[in-house]
Write a structure and sequence with these properties.
about 200 residues, alpha/beta, 5 strands, 7 helices
């Protein structure tokens, strides 16, 4: 059974929009933050320069490269929480241990993961059209690294093949219903076409 999405309470919402490069994390997160009245935090902006240089050269990051970045992201969310603001953070969060780093020390369910996904061919096409430090050549390594949300992780899977506004509407609707779309089993439901 999937972990349920937390229903709105007095606890501030903190969403992590995750997925491989090309899924539109920044666009989806920016609109979600606007629609939900939350603070947008662009995870890529907190990468150390060495990480950006490495990815720009087509070299995948190691876990040692990611550790200080993930710690900085978690600290930034906590900073906003201390200021009384909920957040929508972008972070690839491809592995369970990376998501654990973002949740470290927080109450269970305090971070909700919105996993954006689409067919690899569509993602590659999007990456080739945009200007970004992450080249399309790194998509295969990201897909190989990806560990889907576990059954005990609060979150949802979202098909981003649809237009941006439709994707954001589907996420907001799922949040309002308090419904989880996460889970490691094949055939689990996805917020996407036909829903």
């Amino acid at each position: 059974m999937s972990a349920p999405l937390p229903r709105r309470t007095d606890r501030l919402p903190h969403l992590v929009v995750m997925g491989v490069s090309g899924t539109g994390k920044t666009s989806v997160a920016g609109l979600l933050a606007e629609r939900l009245g939350l603070t947008f935090v662009e995870g890529d902006a907190l990468h150390p320069r060495a990480n950006v240089a490495k990815m720009s050269a087509g070299q995948p990051l190691t876990d040692d490269d990611r550790a200080p970045w993930l710690a900085a992201l978690a600290a930034e969310v906590r900073r906003h929480e201390g200021l009384g603001a909920g957040t929508v953070l972008t972070c690839s969060a491809l592995r369970r241990r990376y998501r654990d780093a973002l949740r470290a020390g927080d109450a269970p369910g305090s971070r909700l993961f919105v996993h954006l996904e689409a067919p690899a061919a569509l993602l590659r096409e999007r990456m080739e059209r945009r200007e970004h430090f992450m080249p399309a050549s790194l998509l295969d390594s990201q897909l190989a690294t990806l560990e889907p949300l576990g059954a005990d992780e609060a979150g949802m899977r979202v098909d981003v093949s649809a237009p941006l506004a439709v994707v954001v509407d589907r996420v907001v609707e799922a949040l309002q219903r308090g419904r989880s779309e996460a889970g490691p089993r094949a055939g689990d439901p996805v917020v996407g076409p036909g829903r």
